[in-house]
Amino acid sequence: MTMTFTDFKGKVALITGASGGVGLRIAEKMAAGGAHVVLNGRSAGNGAKALEQLAAFTDQAASMRFAVGDCSNYDDAVRVCAEAAKVTGTLDIVVSSGAQGAVRPMPFSQMTGPELVIAHNSRFFARINPLHAALPYMQENGGSMIMVGTDAGRHATPGESVVGAFGAGVILMTKTLAKELARHKIRVNSVSLTLTSDTPSWDRIFNEKTFQTGLFSKAKDRFPFGRAPNAEEVARVATFLASEESCQVTGQTVSVNGGLSFGGW
To answer: Domain 12-255 carries which CATH code?
Structure first.
């Protein structure tokens, strides 16, 4: 089943980390709803493939574009947001997704000092830089910001100390930014992921033999519904939070985890 939201017509939506997986699924839904979609990623080649795939979901292919950049670098994030705003002069929606960690999950004791810094920065700043860089284009007319985080921020498992810290930071920033930006009519929400199929992360985890493979192989067999959530199912929730269907929802983090864990804060 494909859900289509129809209230994105004419809006400019920037989706970072959108060469594939959850980000691209979100972009497809927004494009189908009439948005001018700008994708971001680090590879121009992957971006061209993503745009080709996205064109099937919209009659506004001419307004779509791919902005190359690594949003863990603030200058790149500024440039990406400026390029997205060129479509109509403003930004209405920013979805901060993607951001493959430069260091994989591993026991804390096995990480070096530099790896601790890199592991955190490559995830956390890639998530918040696009939101900060987008503010000059959103403060006048308002809009919606979505961060795609991780359920490790609520229920970290061994090997996810830094990933959990990043996830918890996203959850708390979602609450704080929602309070700060409400006066600008900007809503801020997050989607919290667990192991998710049909994503580049899934392929990396199960196509290679690492500590992470063993960690998530156990989790894969514990989903109460018999399988992990997929990228399409996560995208439905993220798109709902960005849409006018959720116009009174802000400061919230929704877990899409197939019942693997409950509770939270």
So the answer is: 3.40.50.720
